[in-house]
Amino acid sequence: MGGMPLLRRRTALPSPVRGSLRAACRAASLDPHVLAEAPGPGPADQRRWAVALRSHLGYGSGDDWTFVPWHEVDHGSWNGETATLEVDQRGEVTDGLVRPGGRRHRIELTDPQRVPEVMADRVAATILFHRQLPVPDSAAVLTVTARRNLADQSLEWLAVPGRGVRTRDPEVRQFAAAAIRRLRREYE
Questions:
Q1: pTM for the complete prediction?
Q2: Which domain range does residue 171 map to?
Q3: 3-class state of residue 77 by DSSP
Q4: CATH number, domain at 19?
Q5: d(CA 158, CA 140)
Q6: Which helix (H) or strand (E) holds 13?
Q7: Using CA atoms, how far apart are residues 68 and 124, in angstroms rounded to an integer?
Q8: Average pLDDT, rounded, for the chain
Q9: What is the pLDDT of residues 76-104, one digit of tens each?
Q10: Which position among 72, 78, 97, 152 has the lowest Cβ density within 10 Å, counted as fewest Cβ atoms?
């Protein structure tokens, strides 16, 4: 019986990579359970890996691992043309208001395996509440959201600015803080 296999062969982390990942997770106090992994380009002994953990996206190898908490992912996608997993991490938070300019992670992979699918699932699992609110005297909106940290189950209430919102404006900051307080009381 020929044809394509029914299930895609799962790539397993090589033993030295699994060991370095576990050590890095231990140092960061993270659960090292891997939900999905995907290899990067290059020779096997120098290859970087992307791993979807229960509470974080990790990428790296050896002593060089980076971990991004799922609840801090604003946007993530797989770009098949560039073979790159692109992840936008939220910007700095001041009094609940997220400032633009978070870190962008670009992770080259030879085969994404299930990492993008698991990433979408894990990010969605962090979003418990969101509501868009028009900013007074403006055409812009703020999105108030409650995100669950999947590592410790804590909730974080944030106001995420839409295009054109001046996050340094004291009136916008007051509006955001009041909106978070009000919606948090309604939700809880």
A1: 0.88
A2: 127-187
A3: strand
A4: 2.30.29.30
A5: 16
A6: none
A7: 15
A8: 91
A9: 999 999 999 999 999 999 889 998 889 99
A10: 152
**To which residue do tokens 């939220």 refer?**
90
Are both 22 and 88 inside the same structural domain? yes
Task: Collect all residues with Cβ–Cβ distance below 8 Å to 153 and sequence separation of at least 6.
Answer: none
50 contacts 13 by C-beta, under 8 angstroms: no
54, part of any domain: yes
Give the tens place of pLDDT for each residue, 104-155: 999 999 999 999 999 999 999 999 999 999 998 888 899 999 999 999 999 9
Confirm whether 181 is domain-assigned.
Answer: yes
In-domain check, residue 5 = no
Do residues 159 and 135 lie in contact, with contact meaning Cβ atoms separated by under 8 Å? Answer: no
Q: How far is CA 185 from the centre of its chain?
A: 26
9, 37, 58, 117, 139 from 85: Cα distances, Å: 20, 12, 12, 11, 33
Does a structural domain hold residue 4? no
Number of domains in the chain: 2
* Residues in contact with 20: Cβ distance below 8 Å, sequence separation at least 6, in sequence order: 61, 62, 63, 65
